[in-house]
Amino acid sequence: MTSNDIARAIIAAAALVAVSTAEAADLTIPQGRAPIPVAANRSPWQMRLRALGVVTTDSGRVDGLPGSDLSFSDTIIPEFDISYFFTENIAAELILGTTYAKVHGGGSISALGEIGKTWLLPPTLTLQYHFTELGAFRPYVGAGVNYTVFYNQSGKTARSLDVRNTFGVALQAGFDYMIDDHWGMNFDAKKIFLRPDFDANVGGAGVSGKAKLDPWLLGAGVTYRF
């Protein structure tokens, strides 16, 4: 099963959970409603703690080497985020976590095996719209920007590996199911379009190229609204 197959299976399972939960919730949505202000007795702050699967796209190239390809390891990590609600419908979310990726050669450079390893710090800021008329079921969508810092980089079959820090676009969808006014369960899926340039030294020769990581970030965890 490929990484994309894993991502599709997890998203399909989440969609089934969302549909089942929505059927139990109040699905009557009044038309023409403006965003609801945050209640005076309610804090605008929210936090979540998730287990996060990082599922990368296995693609990339080394410049000047026809048929070259790259693949990257997938990981499961803890992830923490903080949200601020401007209204009950509109919020900003900052996602924090760190992970690593092992880089392997593919295609015409598959003989290189594991080229190297890099750690990633990918803080992501999204602006979200939360649907509030479904009772305890609170779906949301969002979009934003990611800036990924690559650190603790090391070569294996390459003498050195230097992946450059880069910006990416993030798309997001998910839902909370609130147990009470403060605690809830969360499922979240983000797609980050992340395609950094890199330099490496292989066999004494300098090479460069582009890694097409484009990871899915698939998370499940708990929500706490202050």
From TrEMBL:
<dbReference type="InterPro" id="IPR005618">
    <property type="entry name" value="OMPW"/>
</dbReference>
<dbReference type="Pfam" id="PF03922">
    <property type="entry name" value="OmpW"/>
</dbReference>
<keyword id="KW-0732">Signal</keyword>
<feature type="signal peptide">
    <location>
        <begin position="1"/>
        <end position="24"/>
    </location>
</feature>
<dbReference type="InterPro" id="IPR011250">
    <property type="entry name" value="OMP/PagP_B-barrel"/>
</dbReference>
<comment type="similarity">
    <text>Belongs to the OmpW/AlkL family.</text>
</comment>
<protein>
    <submittedName>
        <fullName>OmpW family protein</fullName>
    </submittedName>
</protein>
